User: Fold these one by one.
Assistant:
Number 1:
Amino acid sequence: MSQPEEATGPSSGRGFSTGDLARVSVFAALIAVLGLPGALNVFGNAVPITLQTFGVMLAGAILGTWRAALAVAVLLVLVAAGLPLLAGGRGGLGVFVGPSAGFLIGWLPGAAVTGWIVERGGRNPSVAWLLTACLVGGVGVIYLLGIPVQAAITGASLGHAALLSLGFLPGDAIKAVFAALVVRGTQRAYPDAVPAVHRERLKAAGRR
């Protein structure tokens, strides 16, 4: 009996198969597409509100730790190369020294932490577990990096930068809830979309 395609395809990195790399590419593209509606600045904050963090949450919850991190890394490399893939058509190295640089860089560990938590939810993570993962990784981790960097770049106090970021919370909470529901529905329809299931298949195939 032949092994499933995902277990037998050519691999690279941490055992990434061609199927894995295709999923990574799709989610990198998804995060980029979610920037098309544009960005919104509120309460005089230089850091814009975008839909792209929703894509970061989806990537983490569906791809798991390493594939999600790779998807975000691919996007950030393309942005650094000058492609206008961020909301508002932004791109280039300049975005990594602007007020939103910390939030942008925080997407990578944010996606990874989201995936790490979801992986520990087992083969059938609940909506509450997925929501927790999205809030901790897709909101908390990103804020943890974004707020101090914003304060350092703008010269504002840490408290003032944190206060400005409160304007993001309602929208980010809504994105986290919506992401948890979308991911749960996807995982019910496609059990292989559960990161823990993917990990088990890799172990069964003898790949680490």
Number 2:
Amino acid sequence: MFAFSTVTIHDCILRNGVSVPVVVEASPSFPARRYTDTYNNRPPPTVETWAARPTPLDSSSLEVSLTGLIGEGRIGVTYSARVNSARDASGLDVTNSLPKEICLKFAKPPYVRSLAREAWFYEQLHKWQGISTAKSFGFFSTSVAQSHSGMLADIVPWKESKKVPRHQYHPDNDSQNHLKDYLPDDAPDPRGCYSDEHGFHRDSPWKTWEHCPESPLLAVLALEKLGNHYFMPDKEPPNRLEGLRNALRAMVDDIAQEGVFHNDLTAFNILGVPEESRTLCPRHNRRHKWRLVDFDRADKMDPQNCGSAELNRARAQVRCIGDVWRGFWGAVEE
């Protein structure tokens, strides 16, 4: 799996109507606090693998051009991008080792922390990338400062964003609330469900980061390009219904083994995989036809050091599949 130090993106920024390339640099992900069970004795501290993966500081590079809008979600806008060239840390041309197109997920300006958090979950699920989750090629960012005239360049993904994100409750209800990106483990925690023994979350630069309109951050998560989302309820083949849903449950079981609670298991976050890209799952001895995406609101426990409640919660995720009452199809009109 390639991890690049820089990505040069064409057709992303316009200055005076003219496209100029932008270089985004590898950035650290944002570790979540560990989910724990208050009704059991606290397990031992988490292992060092909880830390964000070190960012590559070498000459590895990727150059891409945006080719079209794929879609938009709560925190980001996704695009297809053609791979123009790629080099590894030694300078070797590895373009032919990559797909011809990938997916770039651009964070909406106030929601960079969420995208950094999602990047961390892909790191934690590295052994399931390309099997049950999308492959990740890294998380990148750069500051987009104002020009001398006080104007920002036109950022194409931001200009094409149409949806206004839905905000979750938080006690800091001030006039700048629309500029803040609250995560599940930011909220008050009276039950003590989150812990951070090693301080990976506390010491992350994303812990206190806030969006600055005068100097916004262009952040992007590079992923493999997948297909359309899972069937709507009236489109599921009735003669294959249980087989399809059981296949999805097996895929969710893979991430549960790593202690990950997705927390947003909807049809829209389960994307199809082209037949030539399907990889054998070592746990289920099958090639999953779908992959999970969008982990920005996920939680993670330490599966080696946890109580029965955490394990039961992880296993219970499979019940979301095909369950209208658990919001599997979300708001269908979206």
Number 3:
Amino acid sequence: MATIVGAATALSASKSFDSGKLHLPSRRSLSISERKGSFLVVRSDGSVVHKAHRAQKLIANAVATKADSSAASTASKPGHELLLFEALREGLEEEMDRDPTVCVMGEDVGHYGGSYKVTKGLATKYGDLRVLDTPIAENSFTGMGIGAAMTGLRPIVEGMNMGFLLLAFNQISNNCGMLHYTSGGQFKIPIVIRGPGGVGRQLGAEHSQRLESYFQSIPGIQMVACSTPYNAKGLMKAAIRSENPVILFEHVLLYNLKERIPDEEYVCSLEEAEMVRPGEHVTILTYSRMRYHVMQAAKTLVNKGYDPEVIDIRSLKPFDLHTIGNSVKKTHRVLIVEECMRTGGIGASLTAAITENFNDYLDAPIICLSSQDVPTPYAGTLEEWTVVQPAQIVTAVEQLCQ
């Protein structure tokens, strides 16, 4: 099987895994070739499947932990296994079949199939007008997508990397987020803006940005972050059907994550968090790639006698304060784990929301583990230092529960 992401894996930050051997190609280059060879498939339960090539094994503590509720709910049903990028494509294709107004635009999304193959095969099936290749001009094609949404279409705009969409920040903020309001409700903007982001595998500072907090500050848009093939497909379908503009964040290291999803159609809520692991002692709030760092840390915590409750917040705007609040009322302690920057990040907004609404239920100050406020270094060892690691999560929980 040809892969674009190669051996990308959500759990590669583990000290027992040789992350230095994993490399990702440049996102911007138009001359990238698909490399056939070995790759790792990381399932949502944390297990690693090796394909065709010798690789080091992920060593994790073998403990009895409470099951991931999403995995448990789907594993018992008939279904099919998909990688995360394939689940995104399946959701997109189902919506394009269902609704002829759904279209895709972006760099290399057509016959090349997208830089991570999310749109592979769609141009052949639906034609060049519904799957539109654009020049390298994010401000132009994002503005065009917003205009198309105003006139009745449901466009999906793909950024080859979320960092490149900073070039379209004016269109996303002044047009996408505001036109419904400034037109007095005359225009709706049913657009989805999506693409890969986050710290990859030595991609350099400009390709490793976490921009969730940048877009969170824009009034009038919704934001979600997928973390499993199941919720990737469900959130994609929900975002396309929404009458609001939605930004869907995908992590560059999760595209090869594999999971069994139902054969029947389903749609996830854009405003609900996911209970990953019920627990009693501490609430751990996380999203995207950090979900897997948290679950890796949870195995060690269970060995140490702790019972953490893990919630994938998924909806970055608005927060699901119902699910979060019920958990805080039960555990009375909160740890936030994110890959976003500490200053002005998602964790800062979440801390403020919890303090404002549930402060009386807290028995300890909220701890927030975030990435360091520095451009992501290219050197692999320094890159790891900028991102939260499982050992830090274990230490933080021990401190909270003293």
